[in-house]
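Researcher: Next entry in the queue.
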Amino acid sequence: MAVTLREIADDNRDAVLALSVAPEQERFVSSVRKSLDDAVKYPQANPWYRAVYAGAEPVGFVMLSWNVDPQPPGIVGPWFLWKLLIDRRHQGRGYGADVVRRVVELVRAEGATELLTSYVPGDGGPAGFYERLGFVPTGRVDGAGETLVSLALDR
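Model: Structure for this entry, 155 residues:
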């Protein structure tokens, strides 16, 4: 089942806030609440976020820095996949990869030629996931010590 991206509103906010990763993944992925707090804390990052749905059920959360002027080391861009969380009960079904494909479609339509993201290195982390999707290391580290990777958005 393909995912859809929906705005977070009063009717789905509690369900989206309840999404979480497995305890061993928490060092790699911040909670939805923390992500929304970051969106408020860093308006200069031009946060764009959506709930991820499979059918009628919320299964994840995604947030980007949307066409932002980079301000290293804290603000990466212009197109930066800032947060991606798939709920622990829904992992392993291809939803994460589908979200990235949807994000690529959206930002490519806006003229993006590259999508950046970062991850905390370590065993059990998302490095392999991003590598399988075609992201390659940039050789840079962001302000939080995360490895920066890039996906070329060839037309």
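Model: The two ends are 26 Å apart (CA to CA).
Researcher: Noted, moving on.
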